[in-house]
Amino acid sequence: MTERVLGVIGGSGVYAIDGLTGTRWQTVSSPFGEPSDQFLFGELDGQKLVFLPRHGRGHRIPPSEVNYRANIDALKRAGVTEILSVSAVGSLKEELPPGCFVIVDQFIDRTFAREKSFFGSGMVAHVSMGHPVCSRLVDHLAESSDRLGLIAQKGGTYLAMEGPQFSTLAESLLYRSWGCDVIGMTNMPEAKLAREAELCYASVAMVTDYDCWHPDHAHVSVDQVIATLTANADKARLLIKALAPRLASDMSPCPAGCDHALEQALITAPEARDPAMLAKLDAVAGRLLGRPA
Known about the structure:
alpha/beta, Rossmann fold, eleven-stranded mixed beta sheet, 11 strands, 22% strand
């Protein structure tokens, strides 16, 4: 099987991991535009790792302007086979307080201003998103969290909103009525694109505060939020460090078939496919389109 390479997409506080060796920052180009930043390559306890600051170093790119297609395409070009998304979220449930983690297994996509697919006119594809995360990665994350003693809920629904503004009270109450667990601005279309690129994907949502539905929300100070963000980043680094050797030693095939997601998804007849589109898809779908990935 292909060598496993872990890609981590997260904030600037996450990539300074103790034990990460052989590090180098490198530019990786994509036909879908510029990724958020250079990639940090390294190795952690025998596991090759590639880190991407989702918003760029210094947090200069807002959620709606992140080039999600370039990020995912370039990660695949860099050899990444699995993606761990780490992101800050608001809690929509009393039992998920600031400082806890949710290992997401479902999404509701309420974004509307983003490119959500690598495919389009000239090469149409429809991938399955019924189960949008990799169950193998979720299991490893849950077991790693337990070993570390982290407060982490296995499973939960992430409501992806457009932003950059936060929710109104009416929206927050609506999302709670839908049974959502957390709310954030970055996991969509990231998860959809990872599926199209046949990459295993998992998301760890780090709760920084209760959303505006909570009566105490308005009383949370900036200092408290920053302290929670810092503590969450510390715990995220520990989680990545615990996950790495588990992945390095697990050579089992993906039980969810994430790495073969396109096999029943490509719709356009071969004679109707646009050569220019196919050229852009050389990394994402080269395995099936006859081009080197």
